[in-house]
Design brief:
Elements: E1 12-16, H1 23-32, E2 38-39, E3 43-44, E4 59-60, H2 63-71, E5 75-81, E6 86-91, H3 92-100, E7 105-108, H4 111-120, E8 125-130, H5 134-143, H6 149-164, E9 171-174, H7 178-189, H8 194-201
Parallel strand pairs: 1-7, 1-8, 2-7, 3-4, 8-9
Antiparallel strand pairs: 3-6, 5-6
Amino acid sequence: MSPEPASRRGRLIVLAGPSGVGKSTVVAELRRTDAPLWFSVSATTRAARPGEVDGREYRFVSDEEFDRMVAAGDMLEWASIHRGLHRSGTPAAPVEDHLAAGEPVLLELDLAGARAVRERRPDALLVFLEPPSWEELVSRLTGRGTEPAEVVERRLATARVELAARREFDVALVNHDVRETARRLVDLAHPSDASACGDAHAGAVGPRGAGSPGRGIAE
């Protein structure tokens, strides 16, 4: 069988941005509206939490299985979480299967994970989600009221570093409105033609970063 023509392959979209910017909320909106995307399911070595279903929130695997996948190069990116308490990563095979079938794939990652995917898959479209303003991001992080002050300060310090990496991404979307941001992601996943793709990149293209596997922020 001849290989699938490149023009018929799906587009790999990596969504990243600082903590509190609304990545998970945007992805939830895409799921709610049955957006024409396939959402990657991470593999993790931690135990399932109440209400979680294997293959839906995560693919739950043993340490031995995770080791095998890493050794075989079957992870697009992976990292140790909570100082090595467990590991999580993106299995490469399901992503490739959906792309080969012409279906766009969305990965929600942190900065380090996005860099790792860029290294493995330079054809991926890296989308940086940013807040309307620094003050808005601070408000979102401090407004949760669920974390100690030192944890919030650590997240803010990390957010400053991540915001500085904006120009490593192909596209930057300001998350003013969740529905609009979700719509623009769908447009990026299904570019109508080369000119539309070029318009989506306008003002957002910068040097591409590279990095080693790792997600950096605890999930």
